[in-house]
Write a structure and sequence with these properties.
Helices cover 34% and strands 15% of the residues. The protein is α/β, with parallel strands linked by helices and 321 residues long. It has two domains: 2-100 and 293-312, Rossmann fold; 102-284, Rossmann fold (3-Layer(aba) Sandwich). A seven-stranded parallel beta sheet has the order 8-7-6-9-10-11-12, sandwiched between helices. A five-stranded parallel beta sheet has the order 2-1-3-4-5. Helix 5 crosses helix 7. The model has no long low-confidence stretch (mean pLDDT 97).
Length: 321
């Protein structure tokens, strides 16, 4: 059995092992494959029966040009890089990795918030540059420092990751409210469910943890921002298109939104003309919430288990049943 990984570098830049996957058959791992050169994609898949991809697209023409494919494993939660409808027509199951990053993404959301509250990186650099040594006072700070205890965090999308973020926020003394189409008993132990307008109106911090759906695309926009408190903080390490970036940049520059912490943007890698790059108090990281070694290790193990269960005849995490 031939196995191909089209773009393995982000999952495993060298600190994990492909050995368990290699045990299933002949394995070829490419660090990167062109996202636009379909001839290269088809050539690299060749006559492989098992294909793993993270961001390399597998479209209908690729599927039809590679008739040996029996299984496609997406090395991520989102699976829009694969034409799942055509794969289903060709009886090719497509699997994803649904739950590997709950802890790391929730932790990172709070990390973005704490950086906004304390500017730790900036003040550490200032100390290393000698500013504390030469300061006439015994301490200094260049930005307002914010205490979160007693403030309200509103979380839009209260599934596993939203609940993890809410649990950490609650441990910091925050009041947690949430908006989600589906309410769970476990969620009620962490937060009070409210309507979207109430969340927008009463939250000091708004965190996005919802999937990208027609109903959530652009949910942060000029209209919803106008309903928020002056000086609100917005955190998004979920999906970039949840935010209308021009509207958020305008709100940051006007001061309506005090700061934003973002690990995702609408087009990735970020484009040089993205208005958020020049917006005030906008903290942007390169989509790394998911990337701690522990999280990537879970991703690898789930991907291997997906393949094992398929070969046993009882596939799991199939997104195109």
């Amino acid at each position: 059995m031939k196995i191909v990984v089209l773009d393995g570098y982000t999952l495993n830049p060298g600190d994990l092992s492909w050995d368990k996957l290699e045990a299933f058959g002949g394995l070829t791992v490419y660090d990167r494959t062109s996202l636009t050169d379909e001839d290269e994609i088809i050539s690299r898949i060749g006559d492989a029966e098992i294909v793993f991809t993270n961001k390399t697209p597998i479209r209908a023409t690729t599927l039809k040009a590679c008739p040996n494919i029996k299984f496609i494993g997406v090395l991520a939660t989102g699976y829009d890089v694969v034409d799942v409808g055509v794969a289903k027509e060709m009886n090719i199951p497509v699997t994803n990795i649904p739950t590997y990053g709950t802890a790391s993404v929730g932790q990172f959301a709070i990390g973005l918030l704490l950086e906004i509250c304390h500017h730790i990186g900036h003040h550490s650099e200032a100390v290393h540059e000698g500013r504390w040594e030469t300061n006439p006072d015994w301490c200094f700070w260049d930005y307002p420092l914010i205490e979160l205890d007693g403030k309200t965090m509103g979380i839009i999308g209260f599934g596993r990751i939203g609940q993890r973020t809410g649990t950490i926020a609650k441990a910091l003394g925050m009041n947690v409210i949430a908006h989600d189409a589906v309410q769970s008993e476990y969620g009620k132990k962490i937060a009070t469910y409210v309507g979207l307008d109430e969340l927008l109106k009463t939250s000091d911090v708004i965190a996005l943890h919802c999937p990208l759906l027609p109903s959530t695309k652009g949910i942060i926009n000029k209209d919803t921002i106008s309903k928020m408190k002056d000086g609100v903080i917005i955190i998004n390490n979920s999906r970039g298109p949840l935010v209308i970036e021009e509207d958020l940049a305008e709100a940051l520059n006007s001061g309506k939104v005090y700061a934003a912490g973002l690990d995702v943007v609408s087009s990735e890698p970020i484009k040089g003309d993205n208005p958020l790059l020049k917006a005030k108090n906008c903290f942007i990281t390169p989509h790394i919430s998911w990337a701690p070694k522990e999280s990537r290790g879970r991703l690898m193990n789930i991907a291997i288990d997906n393949l094992a269960k398929f070969l046993e005849g009882s596939p799991i995490n199939v997104v195109n049943k």
